[in-house]
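Annotated sample (chain length 358).
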Amino acid sequence: MSMSFTVQSNIRNYDVFIQPTPDFIFQLAQQPRTCFVVDENVWKLYSATLLKDLPASDVIVLPINENRKTLETVQELYDKFAKLSAKRNLTLISFGGGILQDITGFAASTIYRGINWIYIPTTLLAQADSCIGSKTSLNYQGYKNLIGTFFPPIQIHIYTPFLQTQEDSDFYSGFGEVIKLHLMGGELNFRELVQHAPNILSRDPDALLQSIRTSLAVKLAYMVGDEFDTGRRNLLNYGHDFGHALESTSNFAVPHGQAVIFGMLASNFVARNRGLLRKELADEIFQELLLPSLKILPTSGSIKPEVLISAMKKDKKRTGDLLALIMMKNDFDFVRVNDLALQEVTDALAECKIVLGL
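Output written by the structure step:
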């Protein structure tokens, strides 16, 4: 029997199902007036097994990477949707990770002024974080997530066995967001993650499921009353100020969750230097979680202060001339500042290079 919960939304409430078996895929395949969009890698792995019941004539297989998260890719879907007989009564069902979620969610929110959309996340990052929250985001002319909408799926189905075949680099990328959410959930969640991290990283089913449930619960707590990201929910971008910039300066060679791990490290150095975060706690977080999970290191060139600062200035959440940053404090509380000085960035990056041996 599946576990489920409902996410309250000003747009429309939506249900999240944690599925114990793949039977739900057969049931989705029987729905009328549907179109399935599947990440190319997921299709290669599962077309003959888990996805064998999807009607081939209604499946669009889409090559996916960060450079594809653009309006041009969305237009490819528009072209295919326009040829279908179903229009506003079409249901789009997508299987894939966070990038496919962004592309298909944006397409679903804009064609015919919105169609029904069901999402099946197949990566750790998507299952533990991005699947809830209603956001769709596209990159534009070097700006990360500049274009987007708020448009939740009508249903989300989480099936953790998809994670058993995920590439290690992508799995560790997802674990970066798991770390972030457990830190934001307070000291008890942090301690539990340290204890269970070896089992999660070995992909033990029970440990994975518990980490996903905890991560989603923390994210939901930050979303309550701030669905449209104008207040407390913005704190969920901890690690993203430096992280989004690194994604851009590395030309996405450092994937999102790995860049967030680097971003948390850099942010913690700034917080420590400002007296907000004890050195002992910052060091413990680094040694116990951040360092063991950072599998794709940035190049020295991608974190040159002038290069990274230039990318940080493109952050769509900037509100003034100085830079914005979300920092952790000693009590596992978080704060956003809009007065991050360039010298603080330079100092934090220098410390990152030292501890990472760059």
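Annotation: The longest strand covers residues 143-150.
Annotation: Residues 168-356 form a domain with the Dehydroquinate synthase-like, alpha domain fold (CATH 1.20.1090.10).
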